[in-house]
Amino acid sequence: MDWGIKNRLNRLIQPDGHCFFLPIDHGYFQGPTRCLEKPGETIKPLLDFVDAIFVTRGVLRSCVDPADNKPIILRVSGGTSVIGKDLANESITTSIEEIIRLNAAAVGISIFVGSNYERETLLNLARLVNKCENYGIPVMAVTAVGKELGSRDSRYLALSCRIAAELGARVVKTYWCEKDFDKVVKGCPVPVVMAGGPKCKTELEVLEFVYDGMQKGAIGINLGRNVWQDAHPVAIARALRAIIHENATAGQAHELFKEIACV
Ligand code: 5RP
User: Fold this and answer.
1) Any catalytic annotation for residue 216?
2) Among the listed residues 66, 112, 123, the one whose alpha carbon sits nearest the alpha carbon of residue 89
3) Which of the following is catalytic: 6, 70, 85, 173?
4) What's the pTM?
5) CB 107 within 8 A of CB 74
6) Looking at CB atoms within 10 Å, which of 19, 120, 137, 178 has the fewest?
7) What's the rounded Cα separation, in Å, for the pair 249 and 223?
8) Which residues have CB under 6 Å of ligand 1?
9) Could you identify the atom of ligand 1 that is nearest to the CA of residue 223?
10) Digit-coded pLDDT (tens) for 80-109
11) Where are the domains of the chain?
12) Is domain 3-201 in CATH 3.40.920.10, yes or no?
């Protein structure tokens, strides 16, 4: 691995081998998501607790202070919306020149395995890897599931993750699952980061699934709604950080959450 790509990965994945990414890219297909109407305001109190933010170029330019210096994972796929025909019909939205101009530490792109656009989204990933690797920029593949999250089990997730890694993703973001998540991680030769999905009912539920996933080999999280839609975003971010970087159990992290949130 060349110096540039190693350096970018090291900015994202901390010396303990773990990472906490904060996605605020939801608007690229679902518009002004609740609590993300003003992304710049949403992230301000959270930046100290996360290792990178996952964002589109538009929100980056208009809402993120370049002086913040937090590593950026640039969302570079899109072209669909929640009211359109098929969420999976994505293309690459951002040129390599723009990726470099915005000083991205990495880029993120969705793949939709098993969808009507499986081939297109997988070839999008392969093309992006071909471009980005020339400049030492790591690609994070997002194994997207559209509206079918409930029906996706470890066999499906393992298939998606492995394909993403085979096509050259340096990191794969996928969903945690209750059964056999360790098989998803073991079958993927590059680091796996857990996505959040819709907001959980309780904070303990979030902390428990994150703890379980870390025990089963994930290197970290890319959690959005379960952080900034929480009633106490700073407290949950701090509690998640304790699991990711301070070896806390879900119970210990929950105690920390309650202490900070004063609940
Ligand atoms: C969409 C994404 C988003 O980054 C993702 O949804 C993560 O955020 P959340 O934790 O809210 O699900 O990649 O495919």
Assistant:
1) no
2) 112
3) 173
4) 0.96
5) yes
6) 178
7) 18
8) 23, 25-26, 54, 110, 142, 144, 195-197, 222-226
9) 10
10) 999 999 999 999 999 999 999 999 999 999
11) 3-201
12) no
